[in-house]
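Two folds, back to back.
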Amino acid sequence: MTVRIGEKAPNLKVSKWVQGLSTNIDKEKDNVVLVEVFQVNCPGCFLNGIPEAIEMYNKYHKKGLTVLGMATAFEDFDKNTLENLELLLTTGETIGDTLNALGQYRQLNGTKLLYKIPFPVSMDSLKKASENLSQEKIMEVIDANIPNFDSYSSEQKAELIERVKQYLRSKEYSAETFEEYALRGTPSSILIDKKGILRDVSFGQNGLLESRIQNLLNE
């Protein structure tokens, strides 16, 4: 089941903590928690999402904000791997689309990132996707991505269900945290308040992250 805003935030489903001490949401009581979710093969994550998370860490980690990074994979499973995450965090080495895009923007030192990620980073738990698609799973995807689904005609609903089925069949693996938090892509940010309640999930950048963090720190 996917978690909803206002509910208790479940722990991250971690396959391995690659950087920093092992922790999780239930161990960060009394802190506001920002989870920055990215893929290794995601240029926008390294141009925008991660730098913003680093900025929030530098500004607020001494004021009660815990920042955690989580690499996930919902596509390009040959590139978004634990091995490439370890390579990135230990050497700064980039790969694939990230390497090509950051090189074009002159955001690399050779093939390596110009910055280091200062907070703990884990790898999402990936499970081999099931060949059997349950109606419950299909509707979870629809509920997370098409909130006005009931307003569509029967023919439109049938077409949308078929598209979701095709999408789920195309997935080689299922990333547990990505699915449980109903994320729509990367970079995504997850915000959890001091009581462990999920308060916000955002895809991409909307200019509101810092103000939301400030509000939660002041609660």
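---
second:
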Amino acid sequence: MTNARARLSVLYFLQFAVWGCCLTCLGQLLGRGGLGADIAWFYAAVGFVSLLFPALLGHVADRFLAPARVLGLCHLAAAVAMAAAWLYAARNPQMRFAPFFTLWLLFLCCYMPTLALANTTTFALLARQGLRPVDTFPAIRVWGTVGFVAAMWLVNCAYWHDGSFGLTLNDMHPLAQYRFQYTPGMLLCSAVIGLLTFLYTLTLPSTPLARMRGHSWPDVTGLRAFTLFKKGYLRQFLLLAVLAGVCLQITNGFATPFISHFMADPQYGGSGAAGNATMLFSLSQVSEAVCVLLVPLAMNRLGIKWCMVLAMTAWALRYLLFAFGNPGYGLWMLILSMAVYGAAFNLFTVAGHLYMEQNTGEHNRGFGQGLIMLMSNGFGASAGTLVAGAVVNRYCQWQTVTLPSGRTQPFFLGDWTSPWLIFAAYSLLLALLYLFLFHPRKANLR
């Protein structure tokens, strides 16, 4: 395979662009569509799906079908589901929960396994080239973040209304309310890029399947991979990952409605930051792109334990800065909150995937990658997001406001400081748990 790293970088760019089109601004669409009180359920669904599908499809990729082929089929199915969600939302300005949530759930069932499958495919192809994932993977994974950011900028600026298409950062523009960050256009963008990703996976070479070790039920189903829990250091890591996974979806679900709500405040209504919440939030992914390159250094110098401690501390700082930031004199706090996201996210997720790669056997690598997704994005994110949603709904409610421009728009208004402080305290507690309870095995990095 020629130029493996470049080809895999394109894969990550496309794959995460699918996610970047809708993940951080879905709450805006839900608020406008009458489902603002249900935001937590849509983000908790990410966790519900991760309870089963990443591990199940990881097992399929380990045993029955090459990871790259499973990856492509998942992207095709996800694109179809997202296109159906776009059609429903475009035809129903006031959406009903059941049909739209069902379509969103179908998309997640197909898309979420691709996050682990892409890692499995990449690790296998790198191994064929004699390259160490710990050295090579971060430079490839960073292109996923670039794709995510590019997609966020697209939906933030692009608008379509009555045959008129354009780009604008000015929220006072006559067609600004039709930007994709507020409309079903975000779903259409996601579906189109998903189809392109499927087509691209067809160009990737296949990798050999893991050789079956037996024909018992645990062997055939892949359940033998759960023997990983017999290893104390992995059991500690995976159980703590459940608690840490709570942090992963909170800002994805609530940061853009939080930033946008300042538009309803006369003091900040004309702020460019408040009117471009998706682009401001994209600074988090820019930070992620920079910090991902530091993960190998952190893993080699500090080890997985201190990576986790620093990650949880960074999450706490992120929430604290949200609690006291605003688009005016406190804009620097919002920007700094975006900057620390890179450390918070990468030191947990990327380092965690590398740690599982180091400590799972050849026959269960795909299942191992799915297992860390199950524990963090599954159990942790599902329960945690619902609790976080209840906390936010306790202090804030959606209200329709007439802006100085004359247009009316719903905003998530209320006391945002209290929820952010609660989330910060939880993250600091997790940092202490990692510090005193987690005792990883020291392993040579491959």
